[in-house]
Amino acid sequence: MTTRPTVLITGASTGIGAVYAARFAQRGHDLVLVARDQSRLDTLAAGLRAEHNVAVDVLQADLTRLSDLQTVEARLRDDARIGILVNNAGAAQSGTFIEQSTDSVAQLVALNTTALVRLASAIAPRLAKAGDGAIINIGSVVGLAPEFGMSVYGATKAFVLFLSQGLSLELSPQGVYVQAVLPAATRTEIWDRAGIDINTLSEIMEVGDLVDAALVGFDRREAVTIPPLHEGERWDALQTARQGLLSQIRQAAVAERYKA
């Protein structure tokens, strides 16, 4: 009998993280659930244990606090049962860049990028040594679109995409699967927490639909999964164009168009 790897999920108390927890529990995976809200985590864990007969550990942590983050990192390094990391914890905020405070911007970057990369760094060497495992990083289509006007949030999600693609190139030959998931607007509490009225958004994906689509991509071992993208060829064309651009970048010579 094959033992399924334990899945550690950040931002697991609600929204995308909670649905990932339910879906992996349905698949028979034990879980480690990480979030700030202890009571919500306990309630979710009790329900998943009862319904799916899986082991669920709860790890209360604020990933913007270094001590809490280091506790989760240690769990990822030391617990050989954990074979899948879902880097889901994240936040957004309302307002333009000049309206956002320096402290709030720094905290957003700390959660969306620093915590995510530290957790990936904590587990990746162990997975590579084992020759197996997966890292799922939740990004956003906003990371492709500065036109959407969410400059800092979008920049953090562009980081998530780039990091995921780079890690995929580095780790996939060693047996570790890395997936970037790029949702569009999804019906979660992130909007309320950011001070954004969800009713002002014209189209919203339901969170269950988002995670189910992401798991189809996971099972297919896609490097980048974009559930709201209806024509997958558009992404392929973008990557082809990017590769073509790279072929034209020559480090030794200034482009003719920049010569006086």
UniProtKB/TrEMBL annotation:
Asked whether the UniProt record includes Cytoplasm among its keywords, one would answer: no
On whether ATP-binding is a keyword of this UniProt record, the answer is no
CDD domains per the UniProt record, alphabetical = SDR_c (cd05233)
Can you tell which superkingdom this protein's organism belongs to? Bacteria
PROSITE patterns attached to this UniProt entry: ADH_SHORT
Q: Which UniProt keywords apply?
A: Oxidoreductase
Q: Which reaction does it catalyse?
A: 3-hydroxypropanoate + NADP(+) = 3-oxopropanoate + NADPH + H(+); L-allo-threonine + NADP(+) = aminoacetone + CO2 + NADPH
EC number(s) for this protein? Answer: 1.1.1.298, 1.1.1.381
- InterPro entries assigned to the protein according to its UniProt record, in alphabetical order: NAD(P)-bd_dom_sf, Sc_DH/Rdtase_CS, SDR_fam
Matching entries from SUPFAM superfamilies are given as: NAD(P)-binding Rossmann-fold domains (SSF51735)
**Primary role:** NADP-dependent dehydrogenase with broad substrate specificity acting on 3-hydroxy acids. Catalyzes the NADP-dependent oxidation of L-allo-threonine to L-2-amino-3-keto-butyrate, which is spontaneously decarboxylated into aminoacetone. Also acts on D-threonine, L-serine, D-serine, D-3-hydroxyisobutyrate, L-3-hydroxyisobutyrate, D-glycerate and L-glycerate. Able to catalyze the reduction of the malonic semialdehyde to 3-hydroxypropionic acid.
Return the similarity comment.
Answer: Belongs to the short-chain dehydrogenases/reductases (SDR) family.
Q: What name is this protein filed under?
A: NADP-dependent 3-hydroxy acid dehydrogenase YdfG
Q: Organism, per UniProt?
A: Pseudomonas khorasanensis
